[in-house]
Write a structure and sequence with these properties.
The protein is an alpha+beta fold. The protein has 13 helices and 57 strands. The strands form 14 sheets. Strands 8, 9, 10, 11 and 12 form a 5-stranded antiparallel sheet that branches. Strands 25, 26, 27, 28 and 29 form a 5-stranded antiparallel sheet that branches. Strands 50, 51, 52, 53 and 54 form a 5-stranded antiparallel sheet that branches. The relative contact order is 0.07.
Length: 838
């Protein structure tokens, strides 16, 4: 990149590094102008681990002078991790601002004598590239273009390129994440990971050779496996997540947000003091004073995870507390975390809580549980029932009026916060295709309400605004997401397919969008990937929170009755449902494509691992179920905005619609004789009921289990005479009842259970217990069957809504998470709009 001099800035009395640019750049007016623009952008980076760019002179670049040496391995894990973590922090800071390093390697890293890491040449690869050379030689990386005669430098750079970069493809921040992994490997082992005799061989090694993770310390292997994934779609998407993937919590420094970290009291006190000071500053600073953005990560409560269904983390209006649904093994409750504290508090009496929301004075929390709308003091105490409601979001104004969505279908209702009979608020415009109103949110005037209008044609779904007095509504923004107003004039919503949180200028008085949307955060959690009860919240004083990165790879894994791994099937996937074929030679899965964010049905041959894609239509295709003869697969698809059941025959060019239900239907099982399809249907009164669809006669669906509680996951016995399912009738337990005619019912689980599956001979029912154990209940078949006591077999990490299968040999095929869901943090951003303004 030219010659580098140690120089002195005579004006500011400091030493600098002065890079004198090569003649090819300095004499080219267009390239110099573009270099000036790029350097100005890079000069805006202000981070303790990034060498500062001070400015561009006539043909030189003035940079911070850094004393020290490039790090070289091998070194102990603790030392390597300290360096790697500082590099990751610098990359995370830059990536949040849209800047990619592109040429990360040890030579561009300096460790000062006091142990501080400084990254050099940040983003200069892009600033220096010759676009004409890139066009004529797409295989060249920017560094290779600049260093064609410097073979040693090229070899070094080539060895740190991500595979997509080596192929000349467009790169993003994931290329930096790859290079970070290569550097971390080198620090740990002292070996060059992809060394070759020349540039060509080095690049071949990058593209084809898999790293031997056994050479790395055990606590680093999981992390290295994620960051050195050759397919960028499967690679870790955010460098900020690396600290959550280190296996050894004792040796890996992590944010001290839980009290369980031993010998970290002084760290906890420091963190607490910083957070309190930051929040106090934002609460009491002069209104015109600008302030920087601060980011915090909050881990879930001890041995728990944040719920990814029926949950929206809710910030209190004063921005000082967050209420969130969390739990483990299917048991969830409401927790409150003060941003001034290091610990979250469980609110007793909020079991199975969903969709919390705050009172305007930040003193109470509304939520839904047991088909009731309830409220509870944020300090704890008894939960008070307000009215009946299954509940899909609520909002509370200063007049103590609560507007809420009472069910998954229909319009909104309003009720006094003190309790009483709810009154209808909005009505569906059915002639326009509206099928539900959900996730209401009051505007600051306490009179107008934003809410999501779900349309039978998903792309026509909108955010609408209604007036409490007029009770009429109009569309504001076309999106499937919920939306929340952020003072003074922004509307926050989610682009669900990209999982990107957006902000758009909004006139709250007129209910009109006033500009273009700007991205705020990536990988924000949605539900079912299409209709977003998206997990973000914002306060009125500049605090934003969201949950991100929860989607995890799963590996189909065979376990025996003792929990011993007996093999795997296929490659890791992003999926939800699986179904084992009748002959047990194939398995059908739903698999999400990371680029389109769409689920499709695939079949995997268990003998040779051959794959076949079955569905190609719009929307998500999920929850495959085989026909008894193995010639067809039924599945659920939401291409029309509601879940419908389709069937695809092998070899056919199109699928066939079987059933849609009034409010949506999801397939769960298909009898062996092919006569009945079992489905879960949305209910206008509760959440879900169980229905059956005959495949003979008039094919008229009929309810099988229809109560005021939620019923789900129905499975038919092999002889088709009995039905197993889970229900919230008494907590959440597994039941068996007669089928198709109603009759006797048996509760077969104890202490909680979900996801029942029959043994292939009908002599046992398996289910996932709330204690995490795969549990067996022996069955003596007959007209009046008897059921044994639940017997735990082995611990199975089976998070909702995953499925599993059991073979005739008693082996369990379970989609096993490759990431730890307990480590998914809650991100809090203080003064988030400051970054937006920049």
């Amino acid at each position: 990149m030219g010659e580098v001099y140690r120089a002195r800035d005579t004006r500011l009395k400091r030493e600098v590094a002065l890079k004198v640019l090569p003649d090819a750049v300095a004499s080219d007016r267009d390239r110099m102008a573009r270099f000036q623009r790029e350097a100005e952008l890079l000069a805006s980076l202000n981070h303790p681990n990034i060498a500062q760019i001070y400015g561009v002179e006539e043909r030189a670049l003035a940079m911070e002078f850094v004393e020290g040496a490039s790090p070289r391995g091998p070194m102990p894990f603790v030392d390597a991790w300290k360096i790697a973590l500082q590099i990751a922090d610098a990359l995370d800071y830059a990536h949040e601002r849209g800047v990619i390093h592109r040429d990360l390697k040890p030579d561009n890293i300096i460790v000062t004598p006091d142990g501080q890491v400084k990254l050099l040449d940040f983003g200069l690869a892009k600033a220096m590239e010759d676009r004409a050379a890139i066009v004529s030689d797409p295989a060249s990386s920017p560094t290779m273009t600049m260093n064609r005669t410097m073979e040693g430098s090229v070899m070094g750079t080539a060895g740190y390129m991500a595979p997509e970069q080596a192929r000349g493809r467009r790169v993003d921040k994931r290329a930096d994440i790859w290079a970070w992994g290569v550097v971390f490997w080198e620090l740990l082992t002292g070996e060059r990971l992809f060394m070759g005799e020349d540039v060509a061989q080095t690049i071949v090694n990058v593209l084809t050779r898999e790293p031997d993770l056994q050479k790395a310390p055990p606590q680093a292997r999981k992390l290295l496996g994620r960051v050195l994934e050759k397919d960028p779609k499967l690679r870790l998407r955010d460098i900020g997540e690396v600290r959550h993937l280190i296996a050894s919590q004792e040796t890996a420094p992590v944010p001290a947000t839980r009290s369980r970290y031993a010998n970290a009291g002084w760290i906890a006190a420091a963190v607490l003091g910083i957070v309190a000071a930051v929040l106090a500053y934002f609460a009491f600073r002069p209104p015109n004073e600008t302030a920087p953005t601060h980011r915090l990560s909050i881990l879930p409560p001890e041995k728990a995870s944040f719920s990814t269904t029926y949950n929206i983390p809710a910030l209190s209006p004063d921005g000082r507390h967050v209420a969130v649904v969390a739990g483990s093994r299917g048991r969830t409750a409401l927790w409150v975390r003060s941003l001034h504290s290091l610990n979250a508090r469980l609110l007793p009496g909020t079991e199975e809580a969903r969709y919390p929301f705050w009172s305007p004075d930040s003193a109470s929390i509304g939520f839904f549980a047991g088909n009731k709308l309830k409220r509870i003091s944020a300090d704890g105490g008894p939960a008070i029932t307000i009215c009946d409601a299954a509940g899909f979001g609520g909002t509370w104004n200063s007049k103590d009026v609560i507007v809420f969505a009472p069910s998954a279908t229909g319009g909104l209702s309003s009720v006094a916060a003190g309790g009483g009979d709810p009154a209808p608020f909005t009505q569906l415009k059915r002639d326009a295709g509206e099928i539900s109103h959900r996730f209401p949110s009051f505007l600051p005037d306490g009179r107008h309400v934003l809410f999501t209008t779900r349309n039978v044609n998903t792309p026509d779904s909108t955010v609408s605004m209604a007036d409490l007095k007029a009770k009429s509504h109009k569309a504001v923004l076309k999106t499937v997401s919920r939306a929340v107003f952020a003072p003074p004039n922004l509307l926050l919503f989610l682009r669900a397919q990209e999982r990107t949180l957006m902000a758009v200028p909004f006139d709250a008085d007129k209910g009109e969008i006033r500009g273009e949307a700007t991205p705020i955060a990536e990988d924000v959690v949605t539900q079912d990937g299409i209709f977003a009860g998206s997990q973000f919240s914002v306060s009125g004083n500049g605090v934003l929170t969201y949950i991100r990165g929860v989607r995890s790879l799963v590996q189909l894994t065979w376990y025996d009755r003792a929990g011993t791994v007996r093999g795997t099937a296929g490659k890791p996937i992003f999926g939800i449902g699986i179904s084992l074929s009748p002959d047990e030679k194939r398995v059908a899965v739903d698999r999400r494509d990371q680029q389109s964010n769409r689920l499709d049905i695939w079949t995997l041959n268990l003998e040779d691992s051959g794959e076949t894609r079955l569905t190609f239509g719009d929307g998500d295709s999920l929850r495959p179920v085989w026909s008894g003869d193995g010639t067809r697969i039924a599945f659920t698809n939401n291409r029309k905005g509601v879940e419908e059941i389709y069937v695809k025959t092998f070899g056919a060019s199109s699928d066939e619609l079987l059933d849609k239900g009034e409010f949506g239907a999801r397939i769960s099982d298909w009898s062996r004789d092919g006569r009945y399809i079992l489905e879960r249907r949305a209910s206008p009164k509760t959440t879900f009921d169980i229905w059956a669809l005959p495949t003979f006669g008039d094919r008229k669906p009929f309810p099988v289990v229809e109560t005021d509680m939620r019923e789900d996951e129905p499975r038919l016995s092999p002889d088709g005479q009995f039905l197993a399912y889970d229900s919230t009738d008494t907590g959440e337990e597994v039941y068996v009842s007669t089928f198709p005619q109603p009759g006797r019912r048996w509760q077969i689980s104890s202490g909680g259970g979900r996801f029942p599956v029959w043994a292939r001979d009908g002599r046992a029912v398996y289910y996932a217990g709330f204690d995490g154990m795969m549990t067996e209940v022996k069955v003596t078949p007959g007209p009046n069957p008897t059921f044994g006591k639940p017997t735990p077999l082995f611990e199975a990490r089976l998070p909702a809504p995953m499925q599993y299968a059991v073979s005739s040999k008693g082996l369990f095929l379970i989609p096993t998470l490759l990431d730890d869901p307990l480590q998914v943090p809650l991100t809090v951003v203080v003064n988030w709009q400051a970054g937006l303004k920049r």
